Known about the structure:
Blueprint: H1 2-25, E1 28-44, E2 52-53, E3 55-67, E4 74-90, E5 94-96, E6 99-122, E7 125-147, E8 150-157, E9 167-178, E10 183-192, E11 209-223
Antiparallel strand pairs: 1-3, 1-11, 2-4, 3-4, 4-6, 5-6, 6-7, 7-8, 7-9, 9-10, 10-11
Amino acid sequence: MNKFLLLTATIVGTAASLAPAAHAQGIGLGVGIKAGGNASRLAGDVANKDYYTTRYGGHGGLLLNVSFLKDGMLSVQPEVLFSQRGYQIDNPTAKVGNSTYTLKGTSSYNYLDIPLLIKFKLKSFYVEAGPQYSRLLHVKDEERYLLNGNQASHSNTEPSLARVNRNEMSLTAGLGVQTSYGLLIGLRYNGSFTEFAQRFYHNNELANARFSVFQASVGYLLKLK
């Protein structure tokens, strides 16, 4: 959280310091805020892939937009976002004698995302794409064991980060609408090409797993120049 606040202050301070120079050189400058939802799941060569389903979470943060052409047609947009990813666990029911056993659960991964996007806007419509660096902040696992359909046990754990790759690189692309009043409505896809699990994490079932995330967001962009 301290890192997130520091990066937030850096974006605001940078925007304030660059505004006079941007005005003098004809460069457009804006700052904004955005928030929305995530739908994430595992991609890659994952053992027992059907056991892992979509997890829904949220994201939110700040953005800085620097435009180089008239009416903001071409711009660069770095962002700092807090983002929730993960997956649901839904193992098939196993039958032993007259009893049935089922494992269900949720694994939650909280990240600090820093995308750097090239944005092309035509009137109110825009497309964007670029790389993203992410830093894993926290992991939480929740598991429920069901015996004959009834909950037999429940656990909440915070696994060690020692067996996951805390640094992640991915590619982001999206599209959306930006009105003349600064309202932002966007859809975005983020595909990681970094395997997040190391050896022996979750019995090695996730050794080749990567996150695949769809995002929907709303925001507001304030033009400083």
